[in-house]
Specification:
By secondary structure, this protein is an all-alpha fold. It contains four helices and no strands. The longest helix has 19 residues.
Length: 86
């Protein structure tokens, strides 16, 4: 599921309209799980730290910036979603 969400983030940067509905649905589901805005920042920092650790020297400043941009865009869209109806 995480890989799917990250794929959506990359696709969102390429073609925002193509995946915006899916990102909103993902954000709605996360709100129904109890995810709050602060969790997105924590997860984003952890994601970047793990990528840096696993990729080593391949994790260049440009790649870091691209992942931060992708996560920022994805998390902002998810946070803007309305909670899922129960």
């Amino acid at each position: 599921m995480l890989a799917e969400a990250l794929t959506l983030a990359v696709l969102h940067l390429i073609n925002e309209g193509m995946v915006s509905h899916e990102i909103r649905r993902l954000g709605s589901r996360h709100k129904s799980y109890g995810v709050v805005d602060a969790h997105y920042a924590t997860f984003g920092a952890a994601l970047v730290a793990v990528l840096e650790e696993r990729l080593g020297t391949a994790f260049t400043p440009q790649i870091r910036a691209a992942w931060i941009e992708a996560w920022t865009e994805l998390s902002a869209a998810m946070q803007a979603a309305e909670p899922q109806e129960e």
